[in-house]
Amino acid sequence: MPLQICIPLLVADQAKIGTAFGVWRAFNNSGSTIMDVVFGVLQDGTEDNGYYKVLLVAIGIKAWAFVLGVSYIIVDYKLLGKGMTMTRVQREAIEATIDDRDANPLTRRRSKPWFTALAFGLLVAMVATAWAVFLRYLI
Hints:
Keywords: Membrane, Transmembrane, Transmembrane helix. The protein is an all-alpha fold.
C-alpha cells in the first residue's frame, strides 16, 4: 500500500488533508527532480552510457524503501493502534466504540514541534537541492 493512501489516516484534523497532500506532493516532486538529474549524470559517467551505475543506485533506493516500509508497519503496530493495516470496516467498528479520542492510539494524533521543524527543514533543503541541481546541469 503506498504511503499516499495512509495520509488521511495520519492527519488529525481532517480539514487539513489538502495541506497534507500538498506537502507530500512537494516532497515527491523534489525527490523526482533530484533523482532524474542524478540518474542522468550517472548514466553519462558510465562507460558507453550504460545503466550499470543507475541500476545500482535504483536498487539501493528500493532497498531503503523496503526498510522504510517495514518501519512504517512497526510504527503502526507500536504507536498508531494498527490503523494503517486494518480494513475500513474494522477501523470504523473500533472507532465507534472509542469514547475518548485522545486516549486511544488509533485516533490520538499529537504533533511534535521539533518533528514539524525537522520535516520543514528537510523539505526546504530538498527544494533548494532540486533547484540547484536543475540549474547546475541546465547550463
